[in-house]
Amino acid sequence: MTRPYEVLSPKSARRHLVAAAVAVALGLGLAGPAGAKVFYSIDEALHAAFPEAQAIEKDMLFLTDEQARQIEELAKAKLDTKMIAVHVGKKGPKVLGYAIIDIHVVRTQPEAILVVLTPEGVVDSTLILAFNEPLDYLPPARWLRQFTRRTLVPDLALNQGIAAITGATLSAYGITDSVRRALAVYQVMMAPKRR
Questions:
Q1: Are strands 123-131 and 83-91 parallel, antiparallel or unpaired?
Q2: Which of 6, 13, 38, 109 is most buried per CB count within 10 Å?
Q3: In this structure, which long-range contacts are made by residues 58-64, counting pairs with CB atoms below 8 Å and at least 24 apart in sequence?
Q4: Residues 146-175: pLDDT tens digits?
Q5: Residue 96: enclosing H or E segment and its boundaries?
Q6: What secondary structure letter does DSSP report for 162?
Q7: Cβ atoms < 10 Å from Cβ of 94
Q8: Would the pTM of this model clear 0.85, i.e. be above it?
Q9: What pLDDT is attached to residue 36?
Q10: CB 123 within 8 A of CB 115
């Protein structure tokens, strides 16, 4: 059962405000704080993720406390919210895949990551939508390709199945957590519906 409102701690409220600001900037295609960089609007990213889609539907997931706990346990990463938007690419009735935007703080500023999953829950692609830290800390596209065709396994972690990156360690941890959260959301929320 979802509550009509939620009392947030000051830290949680700040994260929600930051996430909202990044989401608005992405939606408008604008940069946020000084030095912030928006690489793709949400529409551009979703159409690149699902080029054959006839429709891209937005499905809002409202997690129960138990679902949130399961996702955090599988992901080995905290959720900042129990409300998750999943974009579903479709061609007719056929599901082409799922896209989840994960917004999190790297050092002191947010970054927004789009994780695209196949209908079977395998990473298809990972894209940085916005990055508000100095661009020196931005991982290159070739580093992001490590996540392609990955599933939620124990070695999907930095310095294990995912190579570390000098000078962008916190960014790399944040992106790895984003991918793990998206895969865990799929396992808990979408995979049971496919059975």
A1: unpaired
A2: 38
A3: 58/85, 58/86, 58/87, 58/88, 59/85, 59/86, 59/87, 59/88, 60/84, 60/85, 60/86, 61/85, 61/86, 61/185, 61/189, 62/2, 63/189, 64/1
A4: 999 999 999 999 999 999 988 889 999 999
A5: strand 94-105
A6: B
A7: 11
A8: no
A9: 65
A10: yes
